[in-house]
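Please predict the structure of the following assembly.
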Amino acid sequence: MSFISKTRPVAALAAAVSTVVSLAVVVLAVAAGGPPARAQGKPAAGSGAAPGGDISSQIRFPVEKYALPNGLVVILTEDHSAPIVSYQTWFRVGSKDEEPGYTGIAHLFEHMMFKGAKRYTGEQFDTVLQANGATNNAFTSYDYTGYYENLPSSKLELVIDIESDRMENLQVTDANLRSERDVVKEERRYRVDNNPHGMLNEVLYGAAFRVHPYRWPVIGYMADLDNINLAKSVEFYRQFYAPNNAIIVVSGDFKSAEAKRLIEKYYGKIPRQEIKRRARPAEPPVHSPRAQFVSKDVQNTTFAISYHTPKAGTDESYALDLLANIMGRGASSRLHKRLVYKDQIASGVRSYNHAKQDSGLFTFVVSLKPGADFNRAQRAVYGEIWRPRNRPVTEAELEMAKNQTMKDYVDGLKTVQGRAEALAINETLLGDHTRLFSDLDRYNSVTAEQVRAVAQKYLAPEKSVLAVLRPGRAGARETQPGDNR
Amino acid sequence: MSARAIFRPVLIAAVLCATSACGSAAKKSRVGDTVLTASSASGFQLRPYGEKALPNGLKILYVEDNSLPYVSFSLLLKTGSSSDPAAFPGLSLLVAETLDKGAAKRSALDVADDLGRIGADFSASVTADASTVTGSSLSMHADRLLSIFSEAVMEPTFSEAEIARARRQILAAIQRRVDNADALADTAWADHLFGNHPYARPPLGTSRSVQSVKRKNVIQHYLRHYRPNNAILAVTGKLSPELVAKVERTFSAWDAREIPAVRYPAFPKIDKIQIRLVDNPALVQAQIRLGHKGIKRQNDDFIALRVANTILGGAFASRLMDRVRKELGLTYGISSGFDARLDFGPFEISTFTKNESAGQAIAEILKVVETFRKGGATDEEVKRAKGYLKGVFPTAIETAEKFAYNLLMLRLYGIPDSYLTNYLRDLDRVSTSDVNRVIQQYIDPANMKALVYSSSKAVLPQLQPLGIVEVKKAADFQ
């Protein structure tokens, strides 16, 4: 939803829904080469023992970070277990850096990055990568834009050549802009206009944010896409596509010394640029409940309830993530048991805390069964939201949430691409890739009282933002102030 | 089963591990009394794996991976939605969905809590040819995961109340599918393409079938198909000798029974361009499928066709993508593929475009395919496609779980593991003339079916010049 990619959905990227930035993350235990050191000893299975202090040590892997004089940040992590490399280039620019009237330019521009530079034309870009066995794609979010190639180990120099070429020499033409704009408009129809969940997300962010750029969708509004011209595109490129605004992560089967030499060779001469960011107004707190209803020709009601939370990387994010897990991750969560299992009025429910660079949003999403009573469901959700604010979650629930978090970490670290993304997102949002390695310990130290404290502080009834997509005559949109419980 | 990637990987790729590190791991090792061996040929080595058959017929695959502290069980049953009784499409899914809703002494909520407590994931899925049940957890919880997983598979309760719950969940999903344009188009497409063939049956079932299915049907289907001699279990991750012994002891208690064979009728004949339009006035964008009969997985042209399809629409640089997306800007995604199955699967092209250009998109697709068939692929394209397929091969088997998945699929389709070890060599041997022969043999733009899910008012006039159009309502697929 918040991720928009060049060719296909990247929903699996945990970053899209995660919180502390890394839930999705991963790690390998060993240095390059042989199998990782065996886990020491046998962890006490279950029962009371703090889950997984042991896991934290088993998921560490060696990482090297440095910067070129032009400001380009480079992160290298070798792992020779398969003959492949994931090469990631992330720019610190996203939809939050756009200006009103030109929403969607960050993502449209991501598409333009495949249209050719100096050494490689647009046509060559895909054919050369393909002939060399590399896959590639890109994604745009509120805070960043990422490009990646997964390639056979022997093709590292080729990919570095191609990526450095488009960082420095992109050729943007009017014809390219026009055809790619049509492609993006189809993408918007696919993700939003023809898609109830995409539409609900757009409505929710529009209601939750009134002044901050998070209020508009990453993919942009249709009318704004038409507004974007060549001059705006070129300006956007000059403004944000510079080595000092980028992070490169290389993960997999390569030699660090060789990668360093090649990165210096191809990126070393690209000049640093001044990055002029628009000032982003701070979003004022929500003081009274908000509600936005949209009618559409759909089969069932879907609704989201959100609360503002702190930005990525704060201490409270860890407790909020665990709370989200207890409330709405899977069949053992409170909301699933209540709404899906017991009351049988919902097909699905989930909750997550999406902590972004400037602020976070703790969200519950409920898909009701066709014909189910919205008011009843709403009351049930608000009732469940009230509970952890009053009475601490149980130790068993907390242990469950910690175990699930560890499992998600481990799952995220299984591939070279997963490891690269985990490092990149921590570095991009927090300026510190090593957060990846300390996160599990921080999750494990969260207490039930801390979970109660964040629930009490952030999930207050007067701070709720409700967005509802319900069956009805299409197009009707209304805002209802006041009590929505 | 919900949304699918716009690029749908169509064929099973293989996997490998080629470096020195892998080589050292490739020396023989053992789990329990099973020796793990790394196969090697053509200059690369697969990750080591072992295989064992229990007396009851259950095959167990072991793929050891000590790089991270996890363990995963994946049980494949050679029964999919095409084995659903004609009166009860959706029965395989209902069975799979209910496995973890109470088993042995645990209630549904106990299972959810017991899995949740150890942070385990459990899922079941059904395709046309198979059902797969997967459970995974951190390795320190492997014992408890095994208990819950094996109970769900071998001792599900199938209580009346839980079947009723699952039935209501699935009915809601069937009704809501109307709003998921991709998913409804896939369902309606299978129905249009396959007619009376069991591959027409939607894995979710139909409202009528799901409403009428009884507990005894569920239990009967389970008892008939969930048998060790119809199953392959893959165990992946950190494997201790104790765990291996426990796995084998646990699953030895499962009783074998003769499995009914599936017989497939002939593939329905296609005459010229037969279009079915499914009407939903709310849609602003048309979902489009086009295609015809494809291949069985057991086919000597499998790899050559894979090369041909990569050139047509199997990758980002392809004929369809170049024309329909890059030149014309008609879509965000377009792909083609042969979904090779036990019987003849579909060959299909899949895309979407705004309602106003639905007719144009179909006409352009047909032109691209006609040109492809008439002129064939060039040497340059063949070389590029082979380079691509070669390069993505390691990623397809990068992790132990992906590797195990490939081994399961090969066993399902009766393909020897040498497919993986010989893959790069066999790919190298594919010539341009091989590719052009299979294009002629397997792709026919003159006789195709098409499915469009959109607003009839907006697109019907555009479709009529292209072929015979039959109009249905979205509600017909609820």
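Chain A touches chain B through 96 residues (CB under 8 Å). The first helix of chain A runs from residue 53 to 58.
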